[in-house]
Amino acid sequence: MIRWLCLSICFIFGFNTFGNVVAANAGRIPLEEALFDIGYRPVEEALKTCESYFNKKIKIPYKLPPIAFTHQLGRCNHTIGINNELEVELINENIPKNHYVIRVRPSEHRINFTQERIDKKYKISNDTYALYVTNRAQVCNYLIFEKDGWQYMLGIDKRISDKVPPKVLIEIADSFL
């Protein structure tokens, strides 16, 4: 790893010889191209693909967290058995911590959480309950609930959980319940 880092630094500085300034990221692949390469598409396209695959309408929240995003992409993961799901990612190319994710999977393939994994349980619209989980993943805190035969997981990067606390995630969940 250190060897790779040293070679990378030498390579980057090697472009800047004799007063010529060359952008170090001139050969950089645009973020959206890299994401398209791993299956991400416009959200509407991913949503239609998943609705067709599951043969059922999927609703996603209208409201977004109060932070800036540069990209909104989705993908329909439909080749992984019981882990098939719609995945929507909202990211900011310039502020990596501005990361919000929506995961939607059929309720019959829900992810179950033991009591010790649940930080708090909230009552949201229509007598629906949501679980707030901060220790499922290293990078995101999740609000998890079910609606219309789907399990929804709204995830926010832990680094901005002070800007997007559970209350905001509940407002987002309520925006389409």
Structural class: alpha+beta
- Total helical segments: 4
The general outline is globular
**How would a crystallographer describe the biggest sheet?**
8 strands, antiparallel
Cα-atom Rg, whole angstroms? 20 Å
Level of helix content? 10-25%
Low-confidence stretches: 1-24
What is the mean pLDDT?
Answer: 84
Sequence of secondary-structure elements: HHEHEEEEEEEH
How are the strands ordered across the major sheet? 1-2-3-4-8-7-6-5
Strands, count: 8
| Percentage of residues in strands | 25-35%
Spatial separation of the terminal alpha carbons: 48 Å
Q: What's the layout of helices and strands?
A:
Elements: H1 2-14, H2 31-37, E1 41-42, H3 43-54, E2 71-77, E3 85-91, E4 99-106, E5 120-124, E6 128-133, E7 140-147, E8 150-157, H4 166-174
Antiparallel strand pairs: 1-2, 2-3, 3-4, 4-8, 5-6, 6-7, 7-8
Question: Can you walk through the features of this model?
Answer:
It is globular, with a radius of gyration of 20 Å. The chain is built from four helices and eight strands, in the order ααβαβββββββα. The longest helix has 13 residues, at 2-14. Residues 1-24 have low confidence and may be disordered. An eight-stranded antiparallel β-sheet has the order 1-2-3-4-8-7-6-5, sandwiched between helices. It starts with a helix and ends with a helix. Strand 7 and strand 8 form a beta hairpin. With 177 residues, the chain is an alpha+beta fold. The chain has helices spanning 2-14, 31-37, 43-54, 166-174, and strands at residues 41-42, 71-77, 85-91, 99-106, 120-124, 128-133, 140-147, 150-157.
